[in-house]
């Protein structure tokens, strides 16, 4: 993948449409990645920091409007809706929700490219993602302010507790090795730092369990590391 090219995230559950959009945009000089639903889109937004999102509305698990709401918490990334919902009311709702442009299906290939380029010119470079959201477990982690919301309740963390949580959140849903956490939080990996990390995880669990007693947010994967449980 040519890193000098701008990245477009296509959020669409119809494989033929995804294939077509990828072909159109790659020929036009963009790098393209895709997500079949809103949940995957939020993960890829945080991981790959795309320059623009092409967003379908009617999708399983999380529709486009809900996905857009979460994206706006994470970044000012420009969003173009491409949807079979093309009535005036749908278009008005789109702009009311904060989209940058709206295309109804079926679309013309050249129009897609022209709209994408126009929105990118107007928008400039989007800010880096500073807020991670996990709607399936109702968790939000702000990397700048260190604010943590769990089921809409504020969780007060010490700086080191937040450091552990942020490492897990950035890598979620992957397992994060004990050594990676130690290096990130303490700047070194040793038996002593791993013990300190273990104690911090214990404290984090206690704080989150006060809000959701029967849900374990941080899982210990034996001999491998910890992972954030980002799905219920």
Descriptive overview:
Keywords: DNA-binding, Phosphoprotein, Transcription, Transcription regulation, Two-component regulatory system. It is built from eight helices and twelve strands. With 232 residues, it is an alpha/beta fold. It folds into two domains: 7-123, Rossmann fold (3-Layer(aba) Sandwich), CATH 3.40.50.2300; 131-228, Orthogonal Bundle (Arc Repressor Mutant, subunit A). It has a five-stranded parallel β-sheet, with helices on both faces.
CATH topology of the largest domain: the name is Rossmann fold
What would the average pLDDT be, to the nearest integer?
91
CATH homologous superfamily of the largest domain - what is it? Answer: Response regulator
What is the total domain count?
2
Indicate the radius of gyration in whole angstroms: 20 Å
Strand content: 15-25%
**Anisotropy-based shape:** elongated
Low-confidence stretches: none
Q: What is the structural class?
A: alpha/beta
Order of helices and strands: EHEHEHEHEHEEEEHEHHEE
Strand order of the largest sheet: 2-1-3-4-5
Provide the helix percentage.
Answer: 40-55%
> What is the CA–CA distance across the termini?
34 Å
Query: Which CATH architecture of the largest domain would you pick?
Result: 3-Layer(aba) Sandwich
Biggest β-sheet description = 5 strands, parallel
Number of helices: 8
């Amino acid at each position: 993948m040519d890193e000098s090219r701008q990245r477009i995230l296509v959020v669409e559950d119809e494989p033929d449409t995804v294939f077509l959009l990828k072909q159109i945009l790659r020929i036009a000089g963009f790098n393209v990645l895709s997500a079949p639903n809103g949940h995957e889109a939020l993960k890829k937004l945080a991981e790959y920091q795309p320059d623009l999102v092409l967003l379908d509305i009617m999708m399983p698990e999380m529709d486009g409007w809900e996905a857009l709401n979460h994206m706006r918490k994470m970044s000012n990334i420009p969003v173009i809706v491409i949807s079979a919902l093309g009535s005036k009311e749908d278009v008005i709702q789109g702009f009311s929700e904060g989209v940058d442009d709206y295309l109804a299906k079926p679309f013309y290939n050249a129009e897609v490219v022209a709209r994408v380029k126009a929105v990118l010119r107007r928008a400039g470079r989007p800010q880096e993602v500073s807020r991670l959201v996990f709607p399936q477990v109702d968790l939000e982690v702000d990397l700048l302010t260190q604010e943590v919301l769990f089921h809409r309740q504020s969780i007060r963390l010490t700086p080191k507790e937040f450091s552990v949580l942020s490492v897990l959140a950035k890598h979620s849903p992957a397992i994060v090795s004990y050594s990676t956490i130690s290096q990130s939080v303490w700047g070194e990996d040793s038996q002593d730092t791993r013990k300190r990390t273990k104690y911090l995880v214990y404290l984090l669990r206690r704080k989150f369990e006060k809000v959701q007693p029967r849900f374990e947010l941080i899982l210990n994967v034996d001999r491998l590391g910890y992972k954030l449980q980002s799905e219920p």
